[in-house]
Each structure stands twice: as structure tokens, then as C-alpha cells.
Amino acid sequence: MAPFGTGNHPYFVAGPGMVDEWRLELPAARWQPVDDRGIPDGDPQDVTSSGYDFRTPRPIGGTSLDHAFTALATDDDGRAWVHLSGPAAEVAVWLGPGYRWLQVFTGDPLGPQARRRALAVEPMTCPANAFVTGTDLTTIKPGDSVTHHWGLQATIL
Fold it and tell me: Which CATH entry fits the domain spanning 2-156: 1.10.238.10, 2.70.98.10, 1.10.10.10, 3.30.230.10?
């Protein structure tokens, strides 16, 4: 048997400049606190009344994001949808069943040419550090397989 988790790291650009004016809708009820090294620290917290509540679309503003989100609301097809819109594009990322987590990253620690110029929206089956904590890991038995799907829709404005 083997523990299994997967994540993808796409970055999206919705217009020129920084992410601050772009609007984000993120269907997550909980966010994962991290320590000063970015390692998950403690239990996921309710996004209500936090700076991480994007369940209603709003500008990213000065919010610095490098956090995992979970408790994702899904549609009738079992998909969770993230929407990002800016002056040049609208991007929708969907996560199929099995993707219970997202990492969202504004790029704040990057150099000046890349800092806050794109938004990473990363579908994940488990949070970072899951091989240590066991949180949401899938165990694959010999001969079994696992398939997960995610995708995106983009519109150039």
C-alpha cells in the first residue's frame, strides 16, 4: 500500500499590474494557518470574519495569500469553482471530486518582477505536509488506481 496525494501549481493572470484589483471568489469555509516557514500549523480555521473569506467575490486588495483552503462548496456535479476576474480576463478553475483542498498564492515573497503579478490557484487532494500529518491522504492498494480531474475556463475580455 502507498500513501498518495497530488497537487498542481497553475498561475493565472487576469490583467496588467498586480493582483490587488482583481476579484476573487473562493468557495472555501476554512483556511489553514501556517508557521513562519509556511508549514501548516494547527487546525483549519473558519474564514468568517477573517481576511481570507472570499466566498463572496471581492478584490484581493492587500491580502497576502500563501494558504491552503478546504471545506469547499460544490455544485450539483460535485465540482468546486474558483473565479478570478480582472480587466483583461476572467478565469474559472474547477476541482472535481477528490480535490478537497486549494492552495492560493499571491507571490508576495517573490522578486519585484514577479511579486503579486499572477495568482496561483492550486488544486490539491490533501494539504501540504500531509505525509507527516496523514490529513486527507489516499491509500492506494496494490493493483488499484486513482483518477482526479480539474480544469479551467478562460475568457479574454
Answer: 2.70.98.10
How does pLDDT run across 87-101, given as a tens digit for each residue?
Answer: 999 999 999 999 999
**Residue 46 pLDDT greater than 90, yes or no:** yes
* Position 32, amino acid: Q
Q: Is the pLDDT of residue 38 over 90?
A: no
How many angstroms separate the CA atoms of 157 and 145, rounded? 40
Q: For residues 119 and 53, give the distance between their C-alpha atoms in angstroms, rounded to a whole number.
A: 16
Is the pLDDT score of 53 beyond 90?
A: yes
Distance from C-alpha of 68 to C-alpha of 104, rounded to nearest angstrom = 6
Angstrom distance (rounded) from CA 123 to CA 151? 9
Q: Residue 39 has what pLDDT?
A: 87
Percentage of the chain lying above the pLDDT 70 cut: 100
Query: What does the buried/exposed string (b/e) look like for 53-67 if buried means 16 or more CB atoms within 10 Å of the residue's CB?
Result: ebeeeeebeebebeb
Amino acid identity for residue 18 in this structure: M
